[in-house]
Amino acid sequence: MDQSFLVMLSNLLQLHNSLDPTSSLLSDTLASTTTTAIASSASSSSSTSPTSLLYSSSIAPLLFFTIASVLSYVASSRPSSSSSSSSPDATTTTPPPLSSSAVSDYSVSAFRALSTEHIWSLEAPLRDAHWRSLYGLSYPVFTTVVDKLKPYIAVSNLSLPSDYAVAMVLSRLSHGLSAKTVATRYSLEPYLISKITNMITRLLATKLYPEFIKIPVSRRRLVETTQAFEELTSLPNMCGAIDASPIKLHSLPNGHNLPGSYRCRYGYPSVLLQVVADQKKIFWDVCVKAPGGTEDATHFRDSLLYNRLTSGDVVWDKVINVRGHHVRPYIVGDWCYPLLPFLLTPFSPNGLGTPAQNLFDGMLMKGRSVVVEAIGLLKGRWKILQDLNVGLNHAPQTIVACCVLHNLCQIAREPEPELWKEPDEGGPQPRVLDSEKSFYYFGESLRQALADDLHQRLSSR
């Protein structure tokens, strides 16, 4: 109860006793707690029942109760003020309360009101556009993510509902928010936001990765992919395009002690993301295991994909014959990558080859454009990748988690956001390693055969 009201009530009590000494409110209050004693002594003039105040000859009791009732009503209807507000130090120790709009927008109850089954009764474009603006994807895709993660979240004993936790993390990934900003919105501690973010991104990067990021080895998918690339480039048996992109780090760990190898070619600290995409801009391989200053070729040679391709672990059951060469499915990249039978690169970065070679280079770069657009979509949809504000130890899993979410959106044919544009890249052609010389010579003859065949086919039309 308000302290000022208690003071006024005490003053009224003293006033009442001075005006009507024949009755005592305190004695009546004590007597009312022992009803049996009151009943047995009702005929005694030395005890006064609570109702006797109403029959007192003085008007003081009635006046007291009238004023006390008015003050009680005023005290109960007036918003209570925090006792700490009178202390000059209170504002430094207690964070200001969230506004009513913030509480209504981000509380569990508000989220539950949005995510009940009634949302399915809304028109799909309106429902999904609203959900996409909050969490980066439509409501059906969101429920897919939640359903797949819920069993793993359940065993973590998280005190928040699974869908609420996933929504919180998606809002951070899609808008690029810091843990502190999300904590303010959701009335939680920043360390808890970081903990939940790390848990959800780890689950996405490990549990959902095998399901949504897969090398196209099945016959049906391989044929679909190579045919789509051939329609785009007129080059047969192309099954993907590879590229790398630096992911900017928001801050350096331990101040400025980050090794210089993390500074990318654009000048900012980063880690390097390598992806291979198909014609639908869906990633079928993702690798994040190098500082941003690492050369693309070095990163590729250190990747699991390189080891699997060079060892013959990946078996593509689709071989065609081009001018006496057995051409297995291959990926394409720019001149920063090594030339290999399963990774074809341009003849020249500046069009100094023969007409057949220049035609081949143009078509190869046209096929490579799908991975450039895929990376642009990835960073445009999950803005946290434009300025990664997580710890360096959690950077790889956060990046891979966004790649998984990107694939989910592409598979569901979510609307594509504005592409994130990066400066044109350049770099020297990598040297041929001794262990790659046989691969290089075979890739060189294979590339020339494809170029000559392409030139002949297009020239005869």
Can you describe what's shown?
- The protein has helices at residues 3-19, 25-32, 35-40, 60-77, 90-93, 100-106, 108-115, 124-135, 139-154, 162-175, 179-186, 190-206, 209-212, 219-233, 296-301, 304-311, 355-381, 395-411, 437-459, and strands spanning 238-248, 270-277, 283-291, 320-322, 325-327, 330-332, 343-344.
- It is an alpha/beta fold and 461 residues long.
- The strands form 2 sheets. The protein has a 5-stranded mixed sheet with strand order 3-2-1-6-7.
- α17 (355-381) packs across α19.
- The protein starts with a helix and ends with a helix.
- The model is unreliable at 1-7, 15-58 and 75-104 (pLDDT under 50).
- Residues 79-102 are annotated as: Disordered.
- Its cofactor is a divalent metal cation.
- Its main location: nucleus.
- This is Harbinger transposase-derived nuclease.
